[in-house]
Design brief:
mainly alpha
Length: about 70
């Protein structure tokens, strides 16, 4: 799964080597998936983004449900 690989890439190398905005449409779509495993991977991406970007991640979380944002 591409979102899983992206999450692992961010966890290992950070977000300074690429722009996460390019991947946001795919991550947002996966976060809204009916597949619980896919949703978990999307949320892992957001967690990795938060680790590297801090509160700036909130601007990228507009499409998430309130429960997912928590």
């Amino acid at each position: 799964m591409a979102v899983h690989l992206l999450s692992q890439f961010m966890a290992g190398f950070g977000v300074k080597r690429f722009s996460p905005k390019v991947f946001m449409p795919a991550i947002e779509a996966t976060a809204g998936s009916n597949n619980p495993g896919a949703r978990t991977e999307a949320l892992n991406c957001y967690k990795s983004l938060f680790y590297w970007m801090g509160d700036a991640t909130e601007t990228l979380m507009g499409a998430l449900k309130d429960l997912q944002k928590d």
